[in-house]
Every structure is written in C-alpha cells, then in structure tokens.
Amino acid sequence: MPIKTIAVCTDFSTNAEVAFEEAFDLARRYKAKLFLVHVLPLVINPLITETEWVLPAEHSHALILNLEERMQQEYGSRLENKIDYKLVVLNGHVSSEILNFLEENSIDLAVMGAYGLSGMEFVLFGSVAKRVVHKAPCSVMIVRSRTE
Fold first, then answer.
1. Bridging pattern class, strands 43-44 and 52-53
2. pLDDT range class, residue 62, cuts 50, 70, 90
3. What residues have CB less than 8 Å from 71, skipping those under 6 apart?
4. pLDDT in tens, 71-91
5. Considering just the CA atoms, what is the radius of gyration of the chain in Å?
6. Segments forming the whole domain that contains residue 112
7. Residue 99 domain-assigned?
8. What is the CATH number of the domain that holds 54?
9. How many domains does the structure of the chain reveal?
10. Residues pairing with 109 in the sheet
C-alpha cells in the first residue's frame, strides 16, 4: 500500500504526542505529506438540553487562531524544513470531523493515540479512536505509550 498522505490527530495529550512522533517518523520514511489535525469540539451539555451551545463566531474564531498558534509552536516548529506538512484546526463533533477530513483529503493512513485528554467525553460519547477505527475510509494506526 503506497502511503503518500498521513493524518495525525492531536488533542495535545501525552498519547497524542506519542502518535505525533510515530506519524512524523512514518512521514519521513515514506516521504509522505503529514496533516496534523485538531478538532475544537462543540460545547454540549447533555444533562440540561439536547441542543448545542454554540459560541459566538468571534469567540470561536479566536479559539481557532489560538489553537493554530499552539499547533505551530508544539508541532510545526519541529517539522519545518524536514517534511511536507499542514496544520489543520476543525470545529465540530470530533470523530465526525476527523472522518470527513480523512475522506475529503484522500488520506492513506490516520495515526492517533489510544485515548486522549477527556475521560468525560468517553463516558458521554464513546471513544473517538474507536469511532474512527470503525468508520475510517483508510487504514488507522492506534499508538500507545510504552509506559501504558
């Protein structure tokens, strides 16, 4: 299977860092383009209502700009002049946005940590990694920390 595009999903957790390192190594080996993807989740309170609490556009835009800066500092600075890469910040339901991105960009391989920051998200919505593995249009590599 030729690997020309790799997407690594990050929530800035320790497991996401391990996934980033693995994806970076694979991108170098295969000379693939690396997409670093972070999804700003919707604000939802399922205990009160089933409707989404949407931030005003200017607040959402400011959060996305801050996330882009953080991604550049944490990841982009380590990738510059080493491989072809793109930082991507999406806004919406995390697993749905990841799945849409993988399909729309014809990604060959998705790399993600076994679990991320939010234990509450797992309880309420199920594992993002699990959903991506089951529905992705490409191969998915789940990376675990050696200390797990």
1. antiparallel
2. confident
3. 10, 36, 38, 87, 89
4. 999 999 899 889 999 999 999
5. 15
6. 5-143
7. yes
8. 3.40.50.620
9. 1
10. 6, 139
